[in-house]
Structure formats: structure tokens, C-alpha cells
Design a protein that fits this description.
Layout (H helix, E strand, L loop, with lengths): L1 H21 L22 E3 L13 E4 L6 E3 L7 E7 L4 H17 L4 E7 L6 H9 L6 E3 L19 E5 L5 E5 L5 H12 L10
Parallel strand pairs: 4-5, 5-6
Antiparallel strand pairs: 1-8, 2-3, 2-6, 4-7, 7-8
Helix pairs in contact: 2-4
């Protein structure tokens, strides 16, 4: 009986060791998989490199803030680096970071970079519309008060506002920022991703 228990315990330990060995780390994403956010252990800036470790973003879509009835979606920007910024007009840090985002957008749009906001917890609609108009924000935003569009991002902390997700040209998640940003934080990441090829062979 004791020998049987010892053998079972050894098998259980070996199985656990195998599972641990197969894990690529807390923040890793299996190659070719759909992105699933994993808790970063307190970190507010998470990067997914090399490119083959990046998970593909699910489709994110919703009503255009500026043009009710028009749909905006990530897949509408094929081959572009896409910077997704979750914000609200009620959010002080969002007000502080918006000029920095607009500056990086101005500098990188010509190199194939698209910014797309996702406006959450904002009612009535006129408040965020006035917000972007007063700040001369040139890129579009999805109007999504309940944050339903973000449900597609498994495990993503929807309560963190502002936050920013940067997709590479193949719309794989390359970086996540769970904090407000300066242009100096975002610019080098976006420029690096814009310099990557839109497509490539294995490992690209």
C-alpha cells in the first residue's frame, strides 16, 4: 500500500513538473493563438516579444462616437499598426494623456499607424463628443458606455481606465499599458512596430 502511494505521489509530481516546463511564463501567449490577457503581477507595461509569441486580437467593434449608426472595427484597418486607447471624458488621467496620444498619431499616421479610442462609462453621448472636439482629437473612437466590446479580450481588466493596447500590423497584441502615457512612452513602441513587416514566414 505504501509503495503504491509513493508511486502515485511520484507520478503527480512528475506531471506537475511537466506542466510547469511546458509553460512559457505568466505573460506569454501561445504562437498562433487568440490573445488572452494574464495578470502581469503588478506591472503596468507589458510587452510581447518576439513577434511569434504574440496572440491575435479578437475582433473589436462598436458604434462610432462621432457618427451614430456607423460601425468601427479593428479589422477595418488591415495591415496597419493599431493603437487602442480605452478612455472616458470623466477620467482625469485620460484628459492628461490625450494630447500625447494625438501627437504620436500625428507623427506616425503616414507610416501606417491607426489610433482607435474606446470610450467607456460615458453618458450622455454629448459629453465625450465635446471632449474630443475641444481637444482636437483627429482619430475615431468607439462609443461603448458598458465596455461590451472589451469582453472579447479574455481576462482584460476593463476597470482600468485609461489603458492602451498596441497591435502590430498583423493585429497581434504587441504591448499593453495599464496606465496613462506620455508621448515618450508610446512613440518608440509604435515606431518599432511600424518598422516590422506586415506579413512574413514562420517566426515573423
Amino acid at each position: 500500500m505504501r509503495a503504491t502511494r509513493s508511486r502515485k505521489h511520484a507520478l503527480a509530481v512528475a506531471g506537475l513538473a511537466l506542466l510547469t516546463a511546458c509553460s512559457a511564463g505568466k505573460d506569454a501567449v501561445a504562437r498562433g493563438s487568440t490573445f488572452e490577457f494574464v495578470s502581469p503581477g503588478g506591472r503596468t507595461s507589458i510587452f510581447y516579444d518576439p513577434p511569434q509569441t504574440r496572440g491575435t486580437s479578437p475582433e473589436l467593434a462598436g458604434d462610432d462616437l462621432a457618427d451614430p449608426g456607423k460601425q468601427l472595427r479593428v479589422s477595418g484597418y488591415p495591415g496597419n499598426v493599431v493603437v487602442l486607447n480605452i478612455w472616458g471624458s470623466w477620467c482625469g488621467p485620460c484628459r492628461a494623456e490625450m494630447p500625447h496620444l494625438q501627437q504620436v498619431y500625428n507623427e506616425t499616421e503616414a507610416s501606417g499607424v491607426q489610433f482607435l479610442g474606446i470610450d467607456v462609462r460615458d453618458e450622455p453621448r454629448t459629453a465625450p463628443q465635446d471632449f474630443v472636439r475641444d481637444r482636437h482629437v483627429a482619430y475615431p473612437s468607439i462609443y461603448d458606455p458598458p465596455g461590451r466590446s472589451l469582453l472579447a479580450l479574455k481576462g482584460y481588466p476593463r476597470n482600468v481606465v485609461p489603458s492602451t493596447i498596441v497591435l502590430d500590423r498583423r493585429h497581434r497584441v504587441a504591448a499593453v499599458f495599464l496606465t496613462s502615457l506620455l508621448d515618450t512612452d508610446l512613440r518608440p513602441v509604435v515606431q518599432r512596430l511600424a518598422a516590422e513587416p506586415a506579413s512574413g514566414g514562420p517566426g515573423a
